Amino acid sequence: MPLFIESFLKNRQFHVRLDSCYSDLFDQEMGVPQGSILSVTLFGLMINSIGKTIYALVSNALYMSTIFSSATDLSISILSSVTSYSVSINLQTWLTPMDSSSLPLKPYAYTSVNCANPTLLLNGTPVPVVEETKFLGIVFDCKLSFIPHIKHLKDKCIKALNLLRVLAHTSWGADQETLLHLYRSLIRSKHDYGCIVYGSARGSYLRMVDPIQNHALHLCLGAHRTSPTSSLCMEANEPPLYFRRKKLSLQYCLKLSCNYNNHAYATVFNSKFHSVFERKPTQLPPLAVRVLGDLQAVGFKKSDVIDLLHLLYQPHRLGF
């Protein structure tokens, strides 16, 4: 097996094809082949040990090629001493056996609005502190207002809306069913992605993307500009974005309810902050608070949910 993996990684070449033209051959000096079965496993074996280099007082999490580190005490002194030590010394030790250029580091620090900006170092170089960052397609800002993400989402949807404008021509354009299919795949899918997270934003911020759905349904149905939005949603069999976000959040929580081992389970179903947000209704509620009323409306009870692991080992409970 080691010889097989060695031959899999060494002496690899690649070229680029544009239509029927090919570029010259180049040696692949680092990295793993893209799209192969072993690539994900080998990359995971290489990067999995990076979490062990973080200092004990700093909690960390590793997802894909991104590592998160945070300290329980967010004072500048602790973050400066502990995190600087763990990142600048231990991470450099982890990179020593390999060529550090094979793992390009793009470090940044992300703090909440209530914390002063810490002074962090990576190999003696200051790490910039950002007020917003994009992770897995969602833009997180320091206030968790999700205004930057909603604006980014609106810009992307407007670009996709231009395609509907072209295809919705009255004389040679696509039919209604095709236009609605394009709307659901190109625009609605962008709204759906991450709505469980950014759905905690204020209603006034979320309504920034509502005109895009209204305009898209006007184009798909060929309706007049003065047509009521509720009539358009009924005719297109499309719920308003507000109800769709609630529906997707409810579906996620119902799916999560049967998996006790999921890290998000305790955050949603064993939350200790319901009373805090009841006393402060102006505060932005998290998912656990937002979905509580919807779960009660559908008659959800945790006692009626069977653990997913029990179903795997007791399939007769489902009648199999």
How many β-strands, per DSSP?
A: 12
Counted by DSSP, the helix tally is 15
Structural class: mainly alpha
The span between the termini is 40 Å
Spans of at least 5 consecutive residues with low confidence? 73-89
H and E string: HEEEEHEEHEEEEEEHHHHHHHHHHHH
Portion of residues in beta strands equals 5-15%
**Which sheet architecture does the biggest sheet show?**
2 strands, antiparallel
What is the rounded Rg?
Answer: 25 Å
Mean pLDDT over all positions: 76
Strand order of the main beta sheet, please?
1-4
- Which outline best applies? globular
The helicity comes to: 40-55%
What is the secondary structure topology, with strand pairs?
Elements (H helix, E strand, L loop, with lengths): L1 H8 L3 E2 L2 E2 L2 E2 L3 E2 L9 H11 L10 E6 L2 E6 L4 H20 L13 E2 L10 E2 L2 E2 L2 E2 L1 E4 L2 E4 L5 H21 L8 H17 L2 H4 L4 H4 L3 H12 L7 H8 L4 H16 L6 H7 L4 H6 L7 H4 L1 H6 L10 H6 L7
Parallel strand pairs: 7-10
Antiparallel strand pairs: 1-4, 2-3, 5-6, 8-9, 11-12
Helix pairs in contact: 4-5, 4-8, 5-8, 8-9
Compact summary:
The chain has 320 residues and is mostly helical. Helices cover 47% and strands 11% of the residues.
